[in-house]
Write a structure and sequence with these properties.
By secondary structure, this protein is of the alpha/beta class. It folds into 3 domains: 106 residues, Response regulator (Rossmann fold, 3-Layer(aba) Sandwich); 73 residues, Helix Hairpins (Orthogonal Bundle), CATH 1.10.287.130; 154 residues, Histidine kinase-like ATPase, C-terminal domain (Heat Shock Protein 90, 2-Layer Sandwich), CATH 3.30.565.10. The protein is 52% helix and 18% strand. Strands 2-1-3-4-5 form a 5-stranded parallel sheet. Strands 7-9-10-12-11 form a 5-stranded mixed sheet. The longest helix is centred in the middle third of the chain and has 63 residues.
């Protein structure tokens, strides 16, 4: 341990004690400052940075408790230790509430002093290292988000061009069956990549705090019906029925319509993707007591394994379970749903069994949703 990196302020009105403690700790390699009373200690703390303060409780003018209160109220990154000739339960509790790390009993034993200071110094260095690591992680996360944003923007244009040329060739005709099949594959791949790029951009914007809610009074029943109509033909093609159970006495809610619509679209789309010859139920209701809005999407589909269920809302899980007809996906849709619901102050949860069926439930509290 590099003791010369640790600075210590000793506050004590006993001159001999102050000199002795300074000599012991300086010999151990610490950078030591002294204060002969509480006022002097506060002046030193206000003007200089100390990692550790070793303060006597009983001093003239300002006592040790007031020194620790100053450290706490000023939010100084300083670890207090207490010197005391006596220690009552009350004083110990008060010192601990003020952040005291440990007590050193007078008369001071040199070896005990060294041990306690060494432990305090280790704690300071560990906290310092953790702060450096957190700063480095934040920098790396910012670089990652910047990279995703730049790459995503650069990919959207060529992917859009690929899709446009494919559509042009398909409309032009005069293609063999195999040529048309290959173009359809290319279009599907381009569409999937374009969706992935857009979802990566959404996640990056949410985490960067760029995305904000645009609140407007919305008819939730109309919003859900609109979403169901988007997928009714796909569901019908898979012999799956979608039923809407509107249990809202008052369907009006103050929400960001486009973001909640995107959430509901994603949940219903997933239900259709993983359900064949089945049933999808969409329910809207108010939570008794809290009046929160609850929207539930349940299906009789393939269900999810416990591993998938435990990670579906995690950004880096990127699960890619295929639908009943091989439909793909990026796995980011539910991550975005979670972020959008959290922006509304709500929550999203999922249930499923490996033998079939899944339930997704979103809750928007009334203070945000009404």
């Amino acid at each position: 341990m590099q003791n010369n990196r640790i600075s210590i302020l000793i506050a004590d009105d006993e001159e001999k004690m102050l000199t002795r403690l300074e000599r012991i700790l300086a010999k151990e390699g610490y950078v030591v400052g002294t204060a002969s009373d509480g006022n002097a200690a506060l002046e030193r703390l206000a003007g200089e940075r100390y990692d550790i303060v070793l303060t006597d409780i009983n001093m003239p003018d300002k006592n040790g408790f007031e020194v620790m209160e100053f450290i706490k109220n000023s939010r100084l990154d300083t670890l207090p230790l207490v010197l005391t000739g006596y220690a009552s339960v009350e004083s110990a509790i008060r010192a601990m509430k003020l952040g005291a790390y440990d007590f050193i009993q007078k008369p001071v034993d040199a070896e005990t002093l060294k041990l306690i200071i060494r432990r305090a110094a280790e704690r300071v260095l560990l906290k310092r290292e953790n702060e450096r690591n957190m700063l480095e992680l934040r920098k790396l996360n910012e670089l990652k988000d910047e990279f995703l944003s730049v790459v995503s923007h650069d990919l959207r244009s060529p992917l859009s061009s690929i899709g446009g040329y494919v559509n042009y060739l398909l409309k032009k005709g005069q293609l063999s069956d195999s040529q048309q099949s290959y173009l359809l594959i290319i279009r599907e791949i381009a569409d999937n990549l374009y969706s992935l790029v857009n979802e990566l951009l959404d996640v990056s914007k949410i985490e960067a705090g760029v995305i904000r809610l645009t609140m407007e009074e919305t008819d939730l029943a109309e919003l859900i019906s609109t979403s169901i109509n988007n997928f009714i033909l796909l569901a019908s093609d898979k012999n799956t029925a979608i039923h809407f159970h509107n249990r809202l006495d008052d369907a009006r809610a103050m929400i960001d319509r486009m973001k909640i619509l995107q959430v509901v679209n994603n949940l219903i789309n997933n239900a259709v993707k993983f359900t064949e010859d089945g049933l999808i139920d969409v329910t809207a209701e108010r939570e008794p007591g809290s009046n929160a809005v609850i929207i539930t999407v349940s299906d009789t589909g393939t269900g999810m394994t416990s591993d998938v269920l435990n990670n579906i809302f995690e950004k880096y899980s990127l699960f890619r379970t295929e639908g009943t007809r091989g439909e793909g996906g990026t796995g980011l849709g539910l991550v975005i749903c979670k972020r959008f619901i959290e922006l509304h102050g709500g929550s999203i949860e999922a249930e499923s069994g490996e033998n079939g069926g899944s339930v997704f439930r979103i809750t928007i509290p009334p203070e945000k949703g009404k």
